[in-house]
Amino acid sequence: MKLKVFIFFAMMVALATGCFAIDHCNGIESGVVYYNEGEFDRAIDEWRTCEDYGVKNSDLYYNLGNAYFRSGKLGFAIYYYKTALRLDPNNDDIIHNLKYAQAMTRDKVEEDGEENPLLSDLFKAHHALSLRTQMWVLLGIFWAIALLAIARRISRSGRAKNVLIGAMFALSSVFCIIAMSAGYKVFVAETDIEGVVTAKDADVTSAPNNKSQTLNTLSEGTTFEVLSEQGGFAEIRLGEKIRGFVKTSDVGIVK
């Protein structure tokens, strides 16, 4: 039993630690200065350096999206807005700017019908906490349950034991709900992958090689579903009619 508890604790610590990334880079501040001075390309260079250094947060990606948009590079703007939104799905500023940029693309795909209000509320609740925060909350709840279990074991009062059992049950229920939400986020991050055309256009070919037939051509900023990656190509799907391969050098894959 003790071994199982230790293994579970170790897994929780590993998951929580794995959700952290470097949060600061000097280039963030200098990029803001360049952006405010209208030197968008220099701001992009600073912020991309921070990205290469390991900084991964929605603010950085949102700023990159804005800088690319102001530079007239619609594809990269949409790519970074989508990357930012993946980390902060309820951010109204990111959502607004993404929709504004997407309205300027040439390739249009029919959207689903009116969103169900109940599903919308569940989506907001699901994303109320980031995956990183959820990992730490789960770790805190685990320790709280462990302490309550110890207190129940040493308590001599039957009434106190019943209260402690009730508290443990309530915390266990919350733990399971948050764990399911976190697990689903991890699953979506691994399986639901989008791509954006960052070049002026991208040819959709019948096979992952340069000699295959061109089936379609997607314009800059077009978003599609990524099914797989094969060498220098990505297998994609767009709506019900377009499916094939695009060069990864022509697109950005949102992960």
Largest sheet: 5 strands, antiparallel
Shape: elongated
How many beta strands in the DSSP annotation?
7
Q: What name does CATH use for the topology of the largest domain?
A: Serine Threonine Protein Phosphatase 5, Tetratricopeptide repeat
CATH class group of the largest domain: Mainly Alpha
What structural class do the secondary elements suggest? alpha+beta
Distance between the termini: 38 Å
Ranges where pLDDT stays below 50 over 5 or more residues in a row are 1-10, 12-21
**Percent range for β-strand residues:** 15-25%
The mean pLDDT is 85
CATH architecture verdict of the largest domain: Alpha Horseshoe
The count of domains is 3
Strand order of the largest sheet: 6-5-4-1-7
Written account of the structure:
The protein has nine helices and seven strands, in the order αααααααααβββββββ. With 255 residues, the protein is α+β, with helices and mostly antiparallel strands. It folds into three domains: 101 residues, Serine Threonine Protein Phosphatase 5, Tetratricopeptide repeat, CATH 1.25.40; 73 residues; 62 residues, Roll (SH3 type barrels), CATH 2.30.30. It has a five-stranded antiparallel β-sheet. Helix 5 runs antiparallel to helix 6. It is elongated, with a radius of gyration of 23 Å. The N terminus is likely disordered.
How would you sum up this structure in a few lines?
This protein has three domains: 2-102, Tetratricopeptide repeat domain (Serine Threonine Protein Phosphatase 5, Tetratricopeptide repeat), CATH 1.25.40; 119-191; 193-254, SH3 Domains (SH3 type barrels). It is built from nine helices and seven strands, in the order αααααααααβββββββ. The chain has helices spanning 2-18, 26-36, 40-53, 58-70, 74-87, 92-102, 117-126, 131-154, 158-191, and strands at 193-197, 201-205, 214-219, 223-230, 233-238, 242-247, 251-254.
